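User: I want to check something. If I give you two sequences, will you return the structure for each one separately, not as a complex?

Assistant: Yes, each is folded on its own. Here is the first sequence with its structure:
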Amino acid sequence: MPAATRSMLLLLGLAALLPLRAAAESPAPEAAGATAAHEQRQARRAQIHTERQALQAQLARDEAACYQQFAVHDCLGRVRAKARSGEHLLRREELQINEQERREKAAERLRSIEERQQEQRQNQQSGAKPPPMRATERGNAQTRAQQAQQAQERAEEQQRRTAQHAQELRQRQQTEAQQVPEARARYEAKQQEAQERRARHARDKAQAEAAGRKPAAPLPDPAP
């Protein structure tokens, strides 16, 4: 075969191998998608942290403003309930992000197991004997299984705590909703009592002056 022909065939072979090498070096679509999803979750976690700090700062400002008002208790109840509602929404979104991440990791482990099983089936069909699993591989497999079980238990425990937190929040809101009218009723009753006492004193004073007697000193108003 002439040297020119051999050179041409060699160049054609190298050109055919270039796309295969590029495909092998480029990341798989699943891996690229998982990386993008992970980066999005991390960015959202950082944003939630910033929003939580802003929520706490706003609560501090609102509480300071409440102490300048007459109905301090009512104002504090409103601003704190608003802050708890905002914190509940942020926490619920955090749990959703954690659950999505847990599911993706579980799916990735499942794909890895299925790929290994598929490789074993192909080896059996081709007559090749699969290599024995080393002790370290068995230990890693057991560790991954334990980690998956622990992750599932943590997710279930977190869901239980979230449900309990939501129930406690509803109970506190109901209790505060009941306490606000009661406090307002007590305040109005004391104001009414003080007004009636002032009216009686004015009447007694007028009667004493009409009779030529010195009127008695008025009683102090009750504490609010």
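And separately, the second sequence with its own structure:
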Amino acid sequence: MYAEIQERRDNPDTSREDILSLMMAARDEQNQPMTDKELRDELMTLLVAGHETTASSLTWAFYWIHHLPEVRKKLLGELDGVDIKNDLSTIGKLSYLKGVCAETLRIYPIALIAFPRINKAPIKIMDYEYPPETQLMPCIYLTHHREDLYPQPKQFKPERFIEKQYSAYEYLPFGGGNRRCIGMAFALFEMKLVLTTVLKNFELSIVNNHQVKPTRRGATLAPSGGKWLVAKGKRDVKVSGGCLSCEHF
């Protein structure tokens, strides 16, 4: 990590847009850059804290897509209409794919709660008053299941995020404020890319309508185990630009 950071410092390139380059270009209120240790810690957070969380979210997404045939049909209809072979940015423009990812993170957010906050002044929340120095922990799961925000909150409905733009106080799978997960953009792109690649190329099926349930895994919420999703074969779909098959990935 440190060798990579030093190489970037020795060979600056303002045209680069990867995460490390963006962090190295960032400046604080005193116009100071991040130290090598800060950069290294942020990169380790991305690598260590990001792989299993994204994998769990993808597992939930595959479950809902194949548990609800109408969702799978709509999503495949959108995915089969694009060719990402030469332009990966295309997936960022797909509204139903975005809705599927957003709804996956809403109904079973990986983190049940956000990091604690300590108020410096008295604060009133609904009918409760909290004195200074109270440790407050926002509950992401309960927020995402409020009936007034999300009618029929137990139902998986990607259309919610197509029909409405939710605020940062209503939808917060990555936390909020200056402690919001630094890997948010990368995780969302990763989800969209993996879902697109797999669904375009393989026919998948849930085994015997296997029931998948949320389980606690440390501080996170993950799907229950078991071999409940299987690949039945390859898909061969014609799109504008040619036949898209597994060999392209």
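Because they were folded independently, the notes below concern the second chain alone. The two ends are 28 Å apart (CA to CA). Residues 239-249 have pLDDT under 50 and may be disordered.
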